[in-house]
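To assess whether ligand presence alters the predicted conformation, the chain was also submitted together with alpha-D-glucopyranuronic acid. Input:
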Amino acid sequence: MTSVQLMMRYVLTVVGLALAFLLRAEDGHRLWLRMERNAAPAEVRVAGPAKKTVTLAIAREELADFWKGEERLVLSVSDDAPGRDGFRIRRRGQEIQLSSASDIGVLYAAYALLRRQQTGQLLSDGQTVEESPSYDLRILNHWDNPDGTVERGYAGRSIWKWDELPGKLSPLYREYARANASVGINATVLNNVNAKAEMLSGDMLRKVMAIAATLRPYGIRVFLSVNFATPKLLGGLPTADPLDAEVRKWWTGKVEEIYRLIPDFGGFLVKANSEGTPGPQDYGRTHADGANMLADVLAPHGGVVMWRAFVYQPSNSDRACQAYEEFVPLDGCFRDNVIVQVKNGPIDFQPREPFSPLFGAMPHTQIMPEFQITQEYLGQSIHTVFLATMWKDCLDADTYYDGGATVAAVTQHKVSEKSLSAMAGVSNIGDTVNWTGNDMAQANWYAFGRLCWNSHYTARQIAEEFLQQTFTDDERFVAPMCQLLLRSWNVAVDYMMPMGLHHIFAFSHHYGPEPWCNLEGMRPDWLPPYYHQADSAGLGFDRTRSGSDAVSQYHEPLATIYNDVHTCPEEYLLWFHHVPWDFVMSDGLTMWENLCYTYYRGAEEAARFTDLWREMRPYVDAERYAAMLKRFERQSKDAVWWRDACAQYFARFSARPIPADCTKPVHLLQDLMEFHLDIDNYTAADMEKLP
Ligand code: GCU
């Protein structure tokens, strides 16, 4: 080795050590709240006659600990400040005033100021910012079971430690509350929509009370999912008929018991007559009968009912139609304190769906969107898919109600003075150290809160501020990673289910492709062939006027646009149409060619994500870098798996070759069809077992 080489080696080692020190291992537990604590507290005081609440004390402490500016901070609760959780931040010389009509508004202001500090958006002298949330209820739905498992959870077990409660309070509860408050989330449903009756037992309620007490200072109200048959299953009544006097009496007593323990209890979330759960239809009653009975019982306490519209029966020839058919006739029949909770699309959180036609179809009913933060259908905790893009696509979609109104507008509109607007997100949180399994999936929890707070934020703005706070504000990292996040949803759709394909997943666990899955005796609407309808003529589900007529559930001009194969947006082509393989698309290529090229493009882009992540190495701590690298590598392999499975499987029907300029498949279709993923105890360590 020459002396120059020796010298170089020495320099590199020193630089490497310095970098390693700077980028010391991070386990992701701190989420986007990675501010360094001040050695000496910043100057913060609470002005005016405000009651010294715990919430104000938290706001003050957060700022004292983490505010790095020169300015003095003054917090105040005052009637002339914005209400409904809103706030004002004003800088006057060397003083910054944070005010709101409520203490929780002041806490939101504190987090907003710290976010500005972290993202370099400092206030200039004389500047005033005012914010107030788009939705009243910004609510997470945990699909957590009393036994600690999480339905569709990919980040460990439930953070609610029911065995230890109420005696022992895990530190996770407070950290959870803080993280949520920092993005404006103000409500949470603790348990699975597939609810166990035992959730309402006296024992469980005392545990719920302990959690509620920990979350309360952070402005978070607790809700529970309830099993509609609880009066039977837990109360021992012979029926759960919502019109039965004894049933109503049982619920009245139960609700009084809950409010004695939890005076600010939020209310119930109900999945009724859906996928086998009990409900009012078991007694010949309607969804409105069921929802209103519970709403009446909750109303004197200020509680609300979130009644889900996720319903479908195998008897319906098109699953996409049923929610609309069951709920639209009930428009105007629901109480003020009922909110009908509607998944973003008409089927079930698929990689890409058009918005549900229920948005804009029930003008006399409070409707709320339900998004899925947990990535059941989008690569679980392995793939990086930034969902703000998808949610914006839904929120910004024009329903054409009354000449034109977006999904955001129709869901933010209050149908009565007493109604509350709301948005729900199915949580991706578990007890794994970094909360969400995949460090990048924290972005989806973050984005959900930010979009509830302001549905006008752009996906780009949210991605940027997330990356700056959670990783680094170095532009060499933020700019390319922001691009990656913004592309990631489209890329996943391309390699999984492009052009409107949907529900062609492996059975039950929904990880990986299985368009061929046709288990004997299984409900057809749980099987991929029901959705893709591949045959020698073409591909896709005919939902036109001559098919299932789902198109007619949309307002004009959408119904006509979707109905015509020549005007239907190409991203929904196979959602609404059974399209001939040789149908010529806008780029002059056939449907079959486009299908293949899109799968190939998706896989190529996924591979580029991995390359890009490798280039990010200098900017990321070693621990998160390595954890994400493994995931990006697996994601690009999965994309090839999807591509090879789908292109080769559909080729059997199209009887056309995969275009010659596409590379040869890596996998044989037969091998993929024989592969079965046993995912029950699937962890990141099992990634190597995949094709
Ligand atoms: C999906 C999911 C289920 C869940 C259901 C629901 O079908 O796979 O696990 O229970 O949605 O939203 O109720």
